[in-house]
Write a structure and sequence with these properties.
- It is built from eight helices and eight strands; from the N terminus they run αβαβαββαβαβαβαβα.
- By secondary structure, the chain is an alpha/beta fold.
- The radius of gyration is 17 Å and the shape is globular.
- The relative contact order is 0.17.
């Protein structure tokens, strides 16, 4: 299957899911997860009309971004270590995975030094999985309030990576919980928080039904991953 055929199939899945729940497909942004795929693969998908890509590893992302045309948009969707946060500054239009105050303060300070403002989402560990990053639902209100007060960060929403289920609908409770948490934080802070980053190749339909605004799809767009990260 060609890159354009893969992209058309994923877009059709999004459109079908939106039709099933009465949403406009324009409400759902497709983030093409290009981690472990080279710049040539990114450019091939871009030639089909996809311009937004998601990366998970800073050391892989930086040279890839530099090898691609400047009109591509990049999101950071992986665990961001504080000692690598400085390399993210000015490269990503949205960082999906802020999950602690220490990281938020590093990003605040680095952006302030360059006179930039960084859009961020807070990653929430909705199901309390020990192997996954994310602020707990109980800790979310305090973190959200603090991040919202940092002048060089712009809090835009929440992100979740749910457990993997054989039945894609198994993830729906996690998606619904994230939406409810977003609504509660939005009411508490009086911020729009338009972004719900949730859903991947295997469960994007369930995420769309539960209100996803950004779905992160890699395998169904790029095929098997090419290599391990540096």
């Amino acid at each position: 299957m060609t890159p354009c055929e893969r992209l058309a199939r994923v877009r059709e899945r999004i459109a079908t899911a939106c039709a099933a729940c009465g949403r406009d497909p324009s409400e759902v942004t497709l983030v093409a997860v290009s981690k472990l795929h080279d710049a040539a693969a990114v450019k091939a998908l871009a030639a089909c009309g996809q311009r937004l890509f998601g990366e998970s590893y800073i050391q892989e992302a930086v040279p890839k971004i530099e090898a691609c045309p400047p009109d591509y948009e990049w999101h950071f969707i992986g665990h961001l270590q504080r000692n690598k946060a400085k390399f993210a500054i000015g490269r990503f239009s949205l960082i999906h995975t802020v999950d602690n105050l220490e990281l938020a303060r590093v990003l605040q300070n680095k952006n302030a030094e360059q006179g930039l403002t960084q859009a961020v989402c807070l990653q929430v560990n909705v199901c309390g999985e020990s192997q996954k990053s994310g602020v707990s639902p109980e800790g979310l209100p305090e973190l959200a309030e603090t991040v919202a007060g940092l002048p060089n960060l712009r809090l835009t929403g929440l992100m979740v990576i749910p457990p993997v289920f054989d039945d894609p609908d198994g993830a729906r409770p996690a998606f619904a919980r994230l939406r409810a948490l977003r609504d509660a934080v939005r009411a508490r802070l009086g911020l729009p928080l338009p972004v719900l980053s949730m859903g991947m190749s295997g469960d994007l339909e369930a995420a769309v039904v539960e209100g996803a605004t950004h779905v992160r799809v890699g395998t169904d767009l790029f095929g098997a991953r090419m290599a391990s990260h540096p």
